[in-house]
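FIELD: query
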Amino acid sequence: MTGKWQLKDHEAERQIFNRRLIIAGVFIVLLFAALILKLVNLQFSQYEYFSARSDGNRLHSQYVAPARGLIFDRNGALLADNQPIFNLSVIREQVGDLDEMLNNLRTLIGLSDDEIEQFSIRLRRNRVPFSSVPIRFVLSEEDRSAIAVNGHRLPGLAIEPQFVRSYPLSALTAHSVGYVSEINREELDQMDETERQNYGGTNHIGKSGVERTYEGLLHGKVGYEIVEKNNRGQVMRELDRTDPVAGKNITLHIDAQLQIAAEQALGDFRGAIVAIEPATGGILAMVSKPGFDPNLFVTGISTKDYKLLVEDRINTPLFDRTTNPYPPGSTVKPFLGLSGLELGLVDYDYAIQDPGYFRLPGVAYRWGDYTLRTAIGGGHGHTNLQKAIYQSCDTFFYDLGNRMGIDAMHEYMSLFGFGQNFAVDIGYARTGVMPSRDWKQESRGEPWYPGDTINSSIGQGFMWATPLQLATAVAIIANKGVVVQPRLLRAVEDEPFVPEIRDPVPDIVLKDQDYWRYMEEAMTMVVHRPYSDTFRDYGTAYEAIAQADRTMPYRMAGKSGSAQVVGISQSILKSGDIVVSDLNKDHGLFISFAPAMHSEIAPQIAIAVIVENGEHGSSVAGPVAKRIIDEYLLNILQIDFATHPSNPNSLISQVND
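FIELD: result
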């Protein structure tokens, strides 16, 4: 029995069980120890790290864009406003397949290639994670409805309200006020880190005009906020906030009513007008026509629309005519005449006998002279400086320029701002050209010839000036030599703005202050000297201005000019068999100030007008200037000239009487 049936060894089994139980217990204890150590590590050693990561998933810091400062005209009319819109934005981190989402938007709201390209550019810029990036500005109601209905399959999209720039006068202030548009990579690269952060919540920056010049005032300071978001990226609550500082509101010297009148006065012509208040240097109107709609650039102009603007070679709407130069023509004669008086090369009695042309000694070539007496023999006859101004006698100034020489001409004409930019806050304005021997040698590699001086003496040849420069120069005559540098900005937050001018332009002090009166009288004769039995001896603008409006209650001083566009002989221009293109016709110019020759009222407005291909300054540009001056003196300032008559002692008053 014992050999066949062996009993179990319970002691051995118990020992095996106990060993296994101990091993299992030790293993469990080690596992618990490891778990406890891990918990200790998480709770203490890595607490700050995981706490920060947790908050990073839940809490988000984002920029708060400041409200851009408004721009007003001198009477409080808005020139640049902020209007609310709804735009479509994307939070990239919440979008799975970006390409699929963009394709869905193409079908859903007609997203264009241009919009996708601009969105890609914005996406590549430095930005805060989980911040929204605009993909389309100005969503229509239909687009908003389509996005709302399909929102469940478009994660990461958001419809956000936003304020964007709006320009009520549209093209009328496109060049002077300028416009804002999206910040580009080049502009970002030019900023330091502080500036880049200040544009963190902003998509726009001033690109031209006042918007660019005073970007620092208008932009403001960005704010910040910390918000709590759920796992879908929706903001649940705001935890902390640093409010942005809004940009400052600014007021310009521009008068919106006069700006509109100036644009209308040009009619269908291309051209430019700059009007200045002589006492303050404030720019009352600054019109370049044709212009463009700056509102197109605010939310991103389409390639098609931009191409239309760029490829319009005739109207060139993007070209700012007020700050770019043209040959000034005969409008330079008053300034050259004053220079001649100051140098003693002419006086009140000096006169020439004009045969209708000028020749340099020993030179056969004749520089011709346009004259009102062409039909009866040519030439202006006996001509002094005043007559040379109101009849625009080229021969007189050929002679004066030749005796003065280009060096003295350059020196004295520069005092009036030719070849320089006197404007305080229009740094982008071109300086034109006031030629000299050195200038020609440096720019052309050629010596200066006597014939160059002859051409420069009537504002042709190498001489170029902007309408802004011409308005500045004629304002100096209106001020009798006092130079008040032109400026656009009038006030900041209703506080008068006094610019800090590092290099102020000195006043022009002549040996005899009566020279200013003499030249003012000559320029007044341009407009008001009537017909004479002697050789039709009247002002070049008399027919178009004073005779056309015999009820004109004030006197205006002026000077006409014609700037040759291409070299076409007069015989060709007069030929009935040849048609000269309108684009080859001379530009018409006119400078003026008013009221003139007035003992009680100082000049209130100085103006420069250029009409492209208008041919005649006196008959085309002159009436444009008068319409603008009428609007300002009679309608805006509402001066009652019946109670303030012109100076009865002036020569022009005696001639008219």
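FIELD: remark
The first strand starts at residue 59 and ends at 64.
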